[in-house]
Amino acid sequence: MEIKSDNQTKKELNITIKTPKGDLKQTFSKTNKVSAVINYVVQKLGLSQNGQYELRTEDNPTEALQPERTLVSYKIEDCSVLVFVDFGKAV
Questions:
Q1: How far apart are CA 19 and CA 82, in angstroms?
Q2: What global pTM score does this model have?
């Protein structure tokens, strides 16, 4: 019988999100889509819903995470750091 560690059985992730206005710390379900995390940051920072935003990993800040994919699909782990990018193109 395989014994799973807390990280393997844990369904939530504590994530730090770096933003232009400072770091945000929040817990998300592993199955949350990237778009849900972006929406959380937009709402928390009071940004325009019509803006252009991306999330990237701190390990690979040049590659945008696709909004329709889940956090777990990118193998994002507990205590990961994501980078929020605001293109400043709110309409």
A1: 9
A2: 0.85
